[in-house]
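This is your field. Have a critical look at the following sequence-structure pair:

***
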Amino acid sequence: MHMFKMKKYTLNYRGVKMLIQHYNYDQMFQTYMKDDFMKEFFEDSNVTDTLNILNSSGVATNFATNVVRVECSPVPCFYTSMSFFDRLQKESIVRENGSIAKCLDEFYEGFTIADELRKMLLVEDSDNYEIYTDQERDEFLFRLLKLICLGGPVCQYEDNIMPYFDTIKALYKNLISVQKDSKELLVSSIVYRFKGFDKDCMLVFPSNVEHEQNVAYAIIDPLKRHVAILQHRWVGSVW
């Protein structure tokens, strides 16, 4: 049995409804254990006493539902540098001064698209969608970009990329552990996207509503025996 103890949690960025909670645990973790690990996480009394969920208003409240089944899917996490996003400037989505190129307003599956960055993130037949491969889009660093840039219906969008980058760097530093191997930095954290279901097989965590911005990630550091739970909630109408 793992024993989980919460360290701290932090909240929010300019209308983006995000919650991070950090827990320590006391036993070894290996990747084949992920499903049992997350099931034990939701059964641990220290977790049930402290775990929050973002409600429909984006407010952190105590999560009191019993989770009986957890679905986990691995998320690649290999990049250690923001140079991953250099091609945004190369493809003129972002200008040299950091300003984000605008486009004519359009609406796409509940999102307002007013710039080339959001268009690249969302619209598969847009000119710049394929500057990142499907594998790269699956990367945790890219997922953070998408979470922060798209946010929710009342998110305050930026005209310049730097506030997004500063927030992503701070999040990545908070969540991801790296180790130096010779001259190279390697990510030692393991990332999973997960969903929690109740006894009636109904989705209850991180939300009872399916939406691509309603997500939860478990970021596990097996060396430090630490797990961070990152939640993001789309607050507003769901199409």
About this structure: The chain has seven helices and 13 strands.
